[in-house]
Specification:
With 273 residues, this protein is of the alpha+beta class. The protein has one domain. It is built from ten helices and eight strands. Strand 1 and strand 2 form a beta hairpin. Helix 2 runs antiparallel to helix 4 and helix 5 packs antiparallel against helix 6. The chain is globular and about 50 Å long.
Length: 273
């Protein structure tokens, strides 16, 4: 009996390792190459520290046959992949898939001014033989994994969205990676800033307020107090009303938005590095 149980665990372990090997860094190699070739990391400083807000060169993918080939290769791999079952690898997989599919949608419709011109409801993204929309992936796959940090990891190709990560998410490092993207976002006055002794936040906290009562957090205030710069913690009422900027997250649009913020709120001491 002991031998049977031992054999079962060996088979389970080998299966899990094989699944991870199929969906880990090597699986996403083409997507990582696309990120390396098209993302500009725009770095800024403010009264609350240093942060980055990446922009994407969609036109580069649109006009580069080599990158188009990498898009096709990644799409084909996703059609037949076995999605990992272990939570941390599953979470990393679906965040990567969402962000990759979003880039593909923009490129296929480029030039456009906003992701809203395309929408998120069309079921044309194939994973493991099933068609998904971006809405399906976000609301029916990722959010049920009950980690509110994902709202700062998935990227909707918009200036108002938290910055697209320049590296793929890795199940073995997912907690560290998610902490980093949240910390970076909450240093960015586009998502959190103090005005008249009140904290003004991204509307993500309004739209998904219930999500911030999961994952070991006790609501928006608790979440902000864990990740925000020290100056912005604990003592200030919160208003969830920063208007979302749906302009495409190109370099021109990102720099324009940051310049406008620096001019409107000089007390933020916002400058580009």
């Amino acid at each position: 009996m002991k031998n049977i149980i031992a054999a079962f665990y060996i088979i389970f372990f080998v299966t899990q390792q094989a699944t991870f090997a199929e969906t880990g860094n090597t699986f996403w190699e083409s997507y990582q190459d696309i990120l390396n070739s098209t993302i500009t990391v725009n770095e800024f400083t403010s009264i609350d520290g240093e942060f980055s807000h990446a922009s994407v060169g969609y036109e580069i993918i649109k006009t580069d046959p080599g990158l188009q080939e990498k898009v096709t290769l990644q799409l084909e791999k996703l059609k037949t992949v076995k999605v990992p079952e272990e939570r941390r690898h599953k979470l990393a997989f679906w965040i990567n898939a969402y962000n990759f599919f979003t880039i593909v949608d923009v490129v296929n419709n480029y030039p456009i001014t906003s992701m809203k011109k395309i929408g998120w409801k069309s079921k044309h993204h194939e994973v493991e033989g099933t068609l998904y929309s971006l809405d399906n992936i976000e609301h029916n796959v990722i959010r049920p994994l009950a980690d509110p940090r994902i709202h700062f990891a998935i990227n909707c190709a918009s200036v108002g969205c938290p910055s697209l990560k320049t590296e793929i998410f890795d199940g073995n490092q997912i907690d560290i990676q998610l902490d980093k993207v949240v910390t970076n976002a909450l240093k960015n006055p586009l998502h959190l800033r103090m005005v008249n002794n009140k904290l003004i936040t991204t509307q993500l906290f309004k739209w998904f307020s219930k999500d911030f009562e999961s994952g070991g957090y006790e609501g928006v205030s608790d979440f902000v107090n864990k990740f925000a710069p020290e100056r912005l913690r604990n003592t200030h009422p919160i208003e969830k009303k920063i208007k979302y900027d749906w302009a495409l997250n190109t370099e021109q649009n990102v720099l324009k938005k940051m310049s406008e913020l620096g001019t409107k709120f000089p007390e933020l001491k916002l400058t580009k590095k």
